[in-house]
Amino acid sequence: MPATRVFRERAFQLLTSDKFWRGAVAVVVFILIWEVASRTDISRVPAPSAVVVTFNDLMRDPSYWFSWYLSVRRVFSGFIAAMLLGIPLGLAMAVSRTFYGISFPVFEVLRPIPPLAWVPAAIIFWPTQELSIMFVTFLGAFYTVVINVIGGAQTIDVRYFQAARSMGSSGWDIFRRIILPATIPSIVVGATVGIGIAWAVVVAAEMISGGGSAGSMGGAKGGGLGFFIWNSYVGGSYTQILVGMISIGIAGYISSALLRKMGEMVTPWLRDQ
Amino acid sequence: MTLAPMPQPVGGEGHAALERAGTGSSAELEVLKVSKSYGTAKFAKTVIRDCSFTIDEGKLTVMIGPSGCGKSTLIRLLAGFERPTSGAITMRGKPVTEPGRDRLVLFQESALFPWMTTYDNIMFGPRARAESGSEPRSRAQFLLDKVGLGAFRRKYPTQLSGGMQRRAELARAMINEPSVMILDEPFRGLDAMTKKLMQEYYANLYEETRRTTFFVTTDIDEAIFLADKILVMTNAPAKVRSVVDVTLPRPRRLEDLIESDDANVIKMHVLSLLHEEAMKSFAHGSKAAADFLDAYSKRIRNPS
Question: A171: which chain B residues are within 8 Å (Cβ-Cβ)?
Fold first, then answer.
C-alpha cells in the first residue's frame, strides 16, 4: 500500500518537525492562559473547558451547521463575484491608459467607503436580504482583488515586453502569455487577502441585518455565523459566543489555506526554487 | 594639481594600424550621427551625442566604455525599443523603427519568462508567429541540447543556475534566427568561473555560426577575447572615441590570450583610452588607476 506508506511518512515528518511542535506549544500555552484568566475574577470569560463542552453539543445541532452553510455560501458567492469582476477590471485598468483614466477616480472614491457602510443601502437596493449580504461581502473582497491585479500587472518588468515584441509577439499574444501569467501571483495574493476580508465583512453584515429565524432552517432569512454569535449574546450564552468566534477563525483559516493551495497549483514556477 | 601623465600608446607604428577601419566587410547595422536626449527640450539630458559606427556582417563587434556612458541606451535604440532624437539607424539600408526578430537582445540580467519552462521559453518566438508543425519543436530540442540544457527542458528559470539561464536565453534568441545578436553585458553578475566558461562558450558559438554580434561590456579582457572590432566609447554623452581592430586568430582560447603579446598590446591601448575617459569624469584623476596603467605599460615594454 504505497498510499498509506506515503501518508505515514508525511505524518511522521509532520510530527517530528520543529514547525509543528512550535505551533502546538503556542496553542497549548494560549489555552492555558485562557483557562487561568477565566478562573480569576477580573473577567467573565468562560473557561475553555466549558467552551469545548458547548462545542461538542453544538456539533450535533444541525442549526449550528446551517449557520456555517449560510456564511460559507455568502462568503464564496461574494468572493467569486469579486474575482470574476475584479480580475478583468484590474487587468483592463492596468492595460489601457484611457480606461484607467476613466475608471480609477471613481474606483478611488468608492474604495475608502467601508463595506459595512453599504449595509443599509444594500438592504434597500437589493431585492432580498441574502443578495444584500452577498453584495456587501463582494465589496469586501472586490477592492483588494482589483488593487492587487492593477499593482501586479503594472509592475511587470518592461524587458519581458521588449523581449516578447522582438520575437514577434503582439496584442493578444502578449496579453495571454506575458501579462496574464505575470499577474497571477498578485491575483493569488489579492484572493487570499480578499477572502479574509470577506469573512470579516460577512460576520458583521449578518449581525446588522439580523436573522428572522435563525433557529428554523426552512426558508431561513438572515442567520449565519455572525447572527449565531449575536443571537448567543442576546440569549446570554457566553460559551456559544466563543464557539461562534472560533468557528469563524477556523473557517477563515481553511479558506485562506485552500486559496494558497490553489495558488500554488496555478503558479508552479514559484514552487521549490 | 597635475594629472598623471598619460602613458604613451605602445606598439609604435602598429598603433595606427590598430585604429584603421575594418576593410572588406559590409555593414549589417549602421548607426549614423545618432543622438538621444531625455527630458524636455529645455532641460534635455543628452545621453548619446553624434554617435556613428557600423556593425559588420559576420563580425563580432564589442563596445566598451565606462559604466553609465549610455551603452544600454544605444542598445535600446538598436533594438528599436526607442527612437533616436536625431540621426539614423539602418539595418541593411532600411531604417530601424520597431523591435524585430532580426535584431534580438540578450539583456544584462535574465529576461527569461519565469512562468515558462526552459522549453516553453525557447518556443516563445515560433509560437508568437504561429509557426506550427514539428519543425519548430525539433529545432527547439536541437537548441536545448546545443546549449546543454536537454535535461532541463521542463525546469523553470528560477531552478536554473545563472550560467544555465544565460544559455537558455541564448537558445531562446537563436531559434528566431536573428541576423544580429545584441548582448548587453550578458555575463555580468555571474561568478568568475562561470563567466570564463560562458565567454569560451560564446566564442565557440560565434566561431561556429559567424552570426553578426554586437556585444556590450565593461570588461576589457572579455572584450579582447571576443572581439573582431572594439568600439571604445567616450564618457556620457556617449560617442565612439576609437575603433580598435582585434586580429587575433580564431578559434580563441582564454589561455592564449594571457600569453599573447598582441592581446596585451591591444589591452594596453584600450586601457589607456578608457583611462583618459575615466579621467574626464574624475576631474582630479585617479592615482590608483594611473599607477596601475603605468605599471602595466612597463610590464609590456619589459616582459620578464
Answer: none
Q: CA of A198, closest CA in chain B: separation in Å?
A: 29
Q: Along the 273 residues of chain A, how does pLDDT read in single tens digits?
A: 567 788 888 888 888 888 889 999 999 999 999 988 888 877 788 889 899 999 999 999 998 999 999 999 999 999 999 999 999 999 999 999 999 999 999 999 999 999 989 988 998 899 988 899 999 999 999 999 999 999 999 999 999 999 999 999 988 999 999 999 999 999 999 999 999 999 999 988 888 876 654 444 444 457 899 999 998 998 888 999 999 999 999 999 999 999 999 999 999 999 865
> Which residues of chain A from 151 to 170 reach within 8 Å of chain B, CB to CB?
157, 159-160, 162-170
Give pTM, 2 decimals: 0.81
Q: How many CB pairs under 8 A join A and B?
A: 71
Chain B CB contacts of A164 under 8 Å are 124, 128
Type of residue found at B80: G
The full 3-state SS of A67-78, as one line of letters, equals HHHHHHHHHHHH
DSSP state of A178: I
ipTM here = 0.80
Cβ-nearest to A167 among B81, B159, B176: B176
Q: How far apart are CA B180 and CA B227, in angstroms?
A: 15
Chain A residues near residue B180 by CB distance under 8 angstroms: none
Task: Determine the distance in angstroms separating the CA of B87 from the nearest CA of chain A, rounded to an integer.
Answer: 22
